[in-house]
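[audit] Reproducing an earlier prediction to check determinism. Same input, same settings, fresh worker. If the tokens differ from the archived copy the diff job will pick it up downstream; this log only records the rerun itself.
[audit] input (224 residues):
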Amino acid sequence: MRILVVEDEKKTASFIRKALQTEGFAVDACGNGEDALAAAGTTPFDVIVLDIMLPGRDGLSVLRLLRELGSKIPVLLLSARGEVNERVEGLNAGADDYLPKPFELAELVARVRALTRRSGETKSTLLRVADLTLDTLTHKAQRGTSTIELTAREYRLLEHLMRSPGRLCGRMMILEKVWDYDFDPGTNLVDVYVRRLREKIDADFEPKLLHTVRGAGYMLKETP
């Protein structure tokens, strides 16, 4: 499950991110509304934790625009004020839940988990590219009728690639989404795991699905 945390207070964002990661969530974070909209438009998040008071475009504006664009990603609103009118406005704008500040991290994690369950009930768990399938609920991968055994990290890499079929996935983006690194460790970590994954999903099958875009990254698609 991947969560987007939109919070401009760096200390608060760090606390939330660490608490969610401890519970097994993959977490992206940004500090303003424009970056939140850009992230939500390129990554299939399971839940967005969205602070109302943001610099520039505020959280309610972000939420309204997401809903106008047809996004059904569950949103948990955060606010330092917590007045009834603001809660009502947020829920009417399309929020799925509301948590006033200050809050206990355990309660935030519980609310996020509840939203991921609700999201999972309405979202297909099966990803497919050609005859390659991945069940995000059971973590079972298949190519045709053959079952593919994956390590936990290989699974996360394959899921990331399959959620963006036909789109270039750069090495830094893969490091951020699969390893939760916001820096380049200066190793060939990504290349090693891509090579391992390619041996499992492509070596004995046609057509080849995992393609290298020289100097840029990788792409999962049916045709070269």
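[audit] rerun output stored. Observation attached for the diff report: The chain has eight helices and twelve strands.
[audit] end
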